[in-house]
Amino acid sequence: MRPVGGRKRTAMVIHFRCYDDYYNLQILSEAYYQKYFSKGDQGVLGAYPAAGGDTTSFNLLDSHQQIITLDDLSSDQATVHLKARNAAIIKKEIWRDPAYSTCFTDKSGDIATFKLDILERKVSSPAGSTPYS
């Protein structure tokens, strides 16, 4: 999954663990291997260890901001938005202090769009002990 637009394009391998129509997003790439995308204390998304019921879960949204699941996607490539469950849609914001950086939050900014390239479907749990590179 990677953000659409911007200068730096970094692809990450993510396992979407499904619960009804929402997902926990487990990172399988090297830098943050086996961490989860989750909201921190200030609502900013980051890579955090599993925290049980406190791990942020997300809905996938289509271009009309309607909830969809991976099963609704007929192609292995899609553009989606994320919505933190029981919260707002994820936005991208540029922080200028102390240095220019991009953060993802449900508080303020422009709606973030992500491009999915689905590598496998119906994978129950990551079995490997080594990260994707």
Provide the descriptors you would attach to this structure in a database record.
133 residues, mainly beta, Trefoil (Acidic Fibroblast Growth Factor, subunit A), 5-stranded antiparallel β-sheet, 3-stranded antiparallel β-sheet, 12 strands, 39% strand, globular
Describe the 3D structure.
This protein is 0% helix and 39% strand. It is built from no helices and 12 strands. It starts with a strand and ends in a 16-residue tail after the last strand. It has one domain (2-117): Trefoil (Acidic Fibroblast Growth Factor, subunit A) (Trefoil), CATH 2.80.10. It has a 5-stranded antiparallel sheet with strand order 1-12-8-6-7, with no helix packed on it. With 133 residues, it is mainly beta. The model has no long low-confidence stretch (mean pLDDT 87).
